[in-house]
Amino acid sequence: MNLLRAPGQLLGVGLAGALLLGTCACADRAGSASGSSAPQGGSPATAPPTPVASGPVTAVTTVLQEGDGPPELCLGGVAESFPPQCGGPEIAGWDWDAVDADSAQGTTWGEYTVEGTWDGEIFHLTEATAPTDPPALPHDPRLDPDNAGAVGDDTSEPEAQKLQDEVYGDLGGLGGWIENGYVWATVIYDDGSIQRYADGKYGADTVAVQSALQDVE
After folding, report:
1. What gap in Å lies between CA 131 and CA 134, rounded to an integer?
2. What are phi and psi for residue 20, nearest 5 degrees?
3. Nearest residue to 20 (alpha-carbon basis) of 86, 77, 73, 75
């Protein structure tokens, strides 16, 4: 069962025959920083954490600024209009004069490899260069057919779609889909605490969290 949730599937694999729901995750998903500690005691957390990166992080992404608004990292996909439309967390320290960019109708944008720090709300830039291929990620064992998740073939499509929508809304997902029995969700940044939250709320082997911002090795 493969259900594609949004065009901002930054780290996932597009699947033939997937059901495209056409929801562009172009809104700012950043919330108040809550740290990355796991909940204590037997009761699961009622809201996902917003982890802070302990070191530098990177992404290959579009940066866009509309009018007098702040420049933003478009980690959740870009609408194919002219000028393009997207949104995401604010990026501090950005200088359009230091990079090549396009501009039309009060909007300025470009695609870059960015590196900086993430405080749970704002991306603080340290370097921006011409876009490169995203770093290769290690194989995720949750993609192995022998390691299928809990959302199996006995789960009806409406049930799976309901779960996917709930997870996507709960985690503030940038993109999501169902593959190999897991509800996959891409978030701005995860240090493992969002995955632990999802496991506690939805059960083990149900949700697979991926991070759009990647730690710099």
Report:
1. 9
2. -85, 125
3. 77
